[in-house]
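Data card: per-record layout.
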Amino acid sequence: MKIPMVSIVGRVNTGKSTLFNKLIKKPLAITDAKPGLTRDRIKKLVAYADIPFYLTDTGGLYPPEEDVIWEKVKEKIDKTVTESDLVIFVIDASEGVLPYDHEIAEWLRKKGKEVIVVANKIDIKKHDLLSAYTLGFGDPLPISSAHGKGLQELLDLICNKLKALGYKEKTIEKSEKPRIAILGKPNVGKSSLFNKLCESEEAIVSPIPGTTRDSIDVETDEFIIVDTAGIRRKYSDPVELYGALRSEQSLRFAEVGILVIDASQEVSNLDKKIANLIIDEGRAIVICLNKADLIKKEDRKKTMDYFKEELQFVNYAPFIFTSTVTGEGISILKEIIRHARKSWQKQLSKRELNNFFNSLTQNFPFSLQILKLEQTGVMPPKFLIKTSKLLKVNELKYIENKIREYFGLMGTPIILENQLVIKHKR
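The structure for this 426-residue chain is written out next.
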């Protein structure tokens, strides 16, 4: 009853990412005329005609210029095809079949995979469909991914092929696993941490800043984890900027934001900006002080105190040392993520809230009278405080800290709304 895997492969600039986006009905993969944009494989669940399958977009084969991490991209493509039940081989019909297409076809034959040849860009007046027959995979399917032509036929063909391979109709239930987004500046170790949490080499890791250009999400037995492109102060081209915008979009769909900071470097204004992005989205937050293997044991407390002082505006966040080299902190990080998400979703019972209210009013150090406290929402927890006089900032902060302490709410923002109640004299 496993879910089948379908991958999209082909030369650079044949429209693979555009096709991927159209089939999943979301602009998930970055598309641009610039060749070789997709490096990491991007996977998404597609449910069509009750036959769910994972669709994976891969990097383009044979980039026109030698990419410094080309070998790693190639390894990912090879692994993806090996794991696939069905391969969609995309060619550019406006150019016809090129020698590289024949090389890919021969490679797929050696892999022994079921293949659908898709001739893309048939909307271009001068296109060559006949040459696609020379690839030896039967009738090519003419489509235009940019204009959505032929996509219904492609989905039908995918489902028929999967049924022929023995896959049955299956209903997919919405996952209840914590959804987390990993954010940070370039080169702080986000992709390495992502791979550690996934317990597999899902994302390409390189010392070159900007290796990850797109958001990649993977569902493990424990989490749904999204690795994101590094957020910069300035962007050298539109692709980098779009990748960063997608990082922020990934945060909106997450429940917990993991801010990754290089523990061997000083806190930057950009680190603080990213922390504020997570806060402004109202997400639970965990701060990973990564590359902890570079910090001497005798310097750990001093380093931790420094980061907590610099990021005191998010003092409710758990701080943890992690190292993707030694594996330090990874298992504890998983527990912290679960706790932060649980706090973010916390719905208190009336009894719990009444007990807290009694404790709060009996020990409230201010002269102000609190008339009522109720919870009005979750994700994150929201509370309404009714008073005879509006609370000051320090009084609201006191109540927030007491709520955290009493209920063990860690890593989640808390929203407090103060409502003035005027008592009318009879």
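Known properties of this structure: DSSP finds eleven helices and 15 strands in the chain. The first helix runs from residue 16 to 24.

See the next section for split statistics.
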